[in-house]
Amino acid sequence: MGTAVRARRLLAGLLGAALSGIGPAPALAFANVAAGDPVGDEELPTLGGGRAALWSPRALANVFVFFRPRQDHSLSTLKAMAECEREFEKRPVRWVAVVSGDWAREEVLATVAEAGVRFAVLVDAGDELYGRLGVRLHPVVGIADARGRLLDYVPFHKVNYCDMVRIRIRRALKEVDQAAVERVDHPPRALMPNEIPGAVAKRHLHLGEALLQRKQWQKAAAEARVAIGRSPELAAAHALLGRALAAGGRCPEALRSFDEALRLEPGNRAAAEGRKACAARR
């Protein structure tokens, strides 16, 4: 693609943003259409010869992928969509890819072949479709219904991109609701190790066990108390405290810890054996 063409596109994008009053917006892949708007019904030439439309009334989900040759994200997206097409091949889903007519045919063919794409590739000669939709990002995947209305589009995401497209196709097929789409778009934040319930208490429990084996009774008891403070329902921590106290000759206090451990976990073997040993000393 020539420098002049790239400069013309950049200027058009900046001008469109200025006129719309929205400024640069990375998620705004289509500047001129929104959900519910028609995407147009004209036919475009295909890479393999002939002509084809962007959408078909026979498909409940019409998926179209705008891409650029020689772009890593576009290549990975085409590969992912090629796999996804096979997943939906027995359902009313239609796939096409769209490329600017400014690219040399050889470059487009090489990208399509590397990606393993089987669906039609439409060539937007003169970038008329690009201009009408206001395509500003590559790659971007759009989905239209059987009436040619835009349902949704997904700009490129490094993480979870394929899942985001897949769930929207299933939404178009009425297999899932919008809540399912939201869950994929906004998955729960992964917990840090210190945020996992009981994780901190168990670390202190393991440290206390190690100290007990070294016969450091008071330090073992201290770690057990920290673990209990973090997770009062952790029977093993009460049993550890009982064992540390008993080892230090404080069986009356240890018995109370063993009893609490057995209340929380009647089958706790360490607490049962510790209580039996303490009772025998009386």
Topology:
Elements lengths: L2 H18 L22 E3 L5 E3 L7 E6 L5 H16 L5 E8 L4 H11 L4 E5 L3 H6 L6 E5 L5 E6 L5 H12 L5 H8 L13 H15 L3 H14 L4 H13 L3 H14 L4 H12 L2
Parallel strand pairs: 3-4, 4-5
Antiparallel strand pairs: 1-2, 3-6, 6-7
Helix pairs in contact: 2-3, 5-6, 7-8, 7-9, 8-9, 9-10, 9-11, 10-11
Features:
282 residues, 5-stranded mixed beta sheet, 11 helices, two-stranded antiparallel sheet, rod-shaped, 7 strands, alpha/beta, single chain, 49% helix, disordered N terminus
Task: Please explain how this structure is put together.
The protein is α/β, with parallel strands linked by helices and 282 residues long. 49% of the residues lie in helices and 13% in strands. The chain is built from eleven helices and seven strands. The strands form two sheets. The protein has a five-stranded mixed β-sheet. Strand 3, helix 2 and strand 4 (93-100) form a beta-alpha-beta unit. Helix 5 packs antiparallel against helix 6 (178-185), helix 9 packs antiparallel against helix 10 (251-264) and helix 9 (235-247) runs parallel beside helix 11. The longest helix is centred in the N-terminal third of the chain and has 18 residues, at 3-20. It is rod-shaped.
